[in-house]
């Protein structure tokens, strides 16, 4: 589009959150910055990035008042936009590689922005509410900075986004973009709340996360060692950068920037007690208190604050939610836990035994000769090749599949704009540089992505392979008949 992007050194990514309602008067421009990464960039550069983003939003609203821009493609950068809350925008600017054929999947980047905001809301409530609570923005900045930097360190997003562009596809292949495992059940009415709980359970409450101090996506960390060092350096200096920010601002409130903030994504903060319940010292009544309180979260569907209790027996994790009321305090929660142990322990043991016998382990969904990702939008379920199998794919295959998925994303977006109520069926089959067949099938709310690296030379062979897979594992959903 000939758009000139803001460039700063060799940085490949910039991530900012800003409030359009703030900083509208001369001399108050810094007030609109709620979060910026990298945080050590000069404020003039941060304001330039946000000013460009604000201008793009204003310009595109002329043509689409109800839905401003989602992505702007410049010659050297991609600008990804997400309006998390009214007038609160999250923007990611990623540099395009001139030496590699790898591309960014815009939908994947937007999914990262949405997940950051959704998880933040679950623990801290809305950004706007914290802004209203303290209009000068110190409270929300402290919350956002701590939470997002913890998020990057825990999930490996800094590696997944900044270093291995094609591994954004790998993450989807292993975990699915928002799919819930078949053995996960939840009585929360909102799907979004269910996904948030599942995501946090994987990141911090699973047996693997408790035993290793890492999330269940930690296999992504076997990549570029230098990226670990860079991320660690940023995290180590986060406090100094935040202090610099407050010292440079002329705030009238005079409040101490050292806020008491719960950091639920910190590592090594959850442990399993002798009774099987998970305990953490992250939540405390006051900053000076050494006595932990029962964790609480917000349910977005009902805007309800609830206590979060987690019980674990072997590989089974049970999450219990109780409404926060004046009559239910920490002592009451202890009594509820005791009731669970007395009345439900035997049933929990039986459920875990049944699930363990019916679960084939990490390779349960492996299909010999196939590397695949299956998405069922109607049931919100994803199924994929196991991590150990996906990592055998070559870079050429991953790059080709990433490009194919980006094309499918674009076609789905166009089809949704033309006819929101009708899904578009697609079938795409391409040959990668390494002669692997890369395939995408979309039909009736279901999507199948597949890589066949050891397939025969002919397209007919690849078509037969997909047909056999569809008939055997997808009830014929993707069959050509």
TrEMBL record:
User: Which cellular component, as a GO term, is one annotated location?
Assistant: Mon1-Ccz1 complex
Q: Where are the transmembrane segments?
A: none
InterPro entries assigned:
Ccz1, CCZ1/INTU/HSP4_longin_1
Q: Which GO terms describe its biological process?
A: vesicle-mediated transport
- Per the record, a Pfam family? Intu_longin_1
Q: Which residues form the CCZ1/INTU/HSP4 first Longin domain?
A: 15-125
Q: Which family does it belong to?
A: Belongs to the CCZ1 family.
Q: What is this protein called?
A: Vacuolar fusion protein
Q: What organism does the record attribute this protein to?
A: Actinidia chinensis var. chinensis
């Amino acid at each position: 589009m000939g758009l000139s992007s803001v460039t700063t050194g060799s940085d490949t990514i910039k991530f900012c959150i800003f409030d359009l309602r703030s900083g509208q008067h001369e001399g108050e421009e810094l007030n609109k910055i709620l979060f910026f990464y990298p945080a050590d960039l000069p404020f003039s550069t941060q304001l330039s990035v946000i000013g460009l983003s604000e201008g793009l939003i204003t310009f595109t609203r002329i043509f689409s008042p109800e839905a401003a821009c989602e992505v702007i493609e410049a010659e050297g950068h991609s600008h990804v936009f997400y309006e998390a809350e009214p007038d609160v925008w999250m923007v990611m600017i990623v540099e395009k590689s001139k030496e590699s054929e790898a591309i960014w999947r815009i939908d994947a980047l937007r999914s990262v922005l949405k997940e950051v905001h959704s998880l933040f809301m679950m623990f801290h409530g809305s950004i706007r509410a914290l802004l209203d609570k303290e209009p000068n923005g110190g409270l929300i900045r402290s919350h956002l900075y701590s939470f997002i930097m913890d998020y990057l360190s825990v999930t490996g997003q800094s590696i997944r986004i900044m270093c291995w562009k094609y591994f954004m596809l790998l993450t989807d292949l292993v975990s699915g973009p928002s799919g819930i495992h078949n053995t996960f059940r939840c009585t929360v009415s909102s799907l979004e709340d269910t996904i948030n709980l599942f995501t946090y359970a994987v990141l911090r409450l699973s047996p693997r996360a408790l035993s290793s101090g890492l999330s269940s996506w930690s296999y992504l960390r076997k990549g570029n060692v230098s990226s670990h060092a860079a991320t660690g350096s940023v995290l180590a200096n986060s406090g100094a950068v935040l202090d610099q920010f407050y010292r440079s601002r002329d705030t009238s409130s005079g409040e101490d920037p050292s806020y008491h903030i719960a950091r639920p994504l910190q590592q090594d903060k959850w442990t399993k007690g002798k009774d099987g319940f998970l305990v953490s010292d992250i939540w405390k009544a006051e900053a000076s208190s050494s006595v932990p309180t029962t964790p609480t979260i917000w349910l977005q569907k009902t805007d309800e604050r609830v206590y979060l209790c987690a019980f674990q027996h072997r590989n089974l994790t049970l999450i219990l939610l109780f409404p926060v009321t004046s009559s239910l305090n920490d002592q009451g929660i202890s009594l509820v836990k005791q009731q669970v142990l007395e009345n439900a322990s035997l049933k929990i043991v039986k459920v875990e035994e049944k699930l363990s016998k019916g679960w084939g382990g990490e390779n349960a969904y492996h299909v010999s000769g196939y590397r695949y990702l299956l998405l069922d939008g109607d049931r919100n379920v994803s199924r994929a090749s196991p991590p150990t199998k996906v990592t055998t794919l070559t870079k050429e295959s991953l790059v080709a599949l990433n490009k194919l998925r980006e094309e499918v994303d674009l076609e789905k977006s166009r089809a949704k704009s033309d006819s929101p109520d009708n899904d578009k069926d697609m079938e795409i089959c391409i040959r990668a540089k390494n002669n692997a067949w890369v395939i995408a099938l979309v039909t009736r709310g279901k999507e199948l992505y597949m890589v066949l690296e050891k397939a025969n030379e002919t397209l007919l062979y690849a078509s037969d392979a997909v047909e056999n897979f569809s008939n055997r594992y997808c009830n014929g959903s993707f069959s050509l008949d």
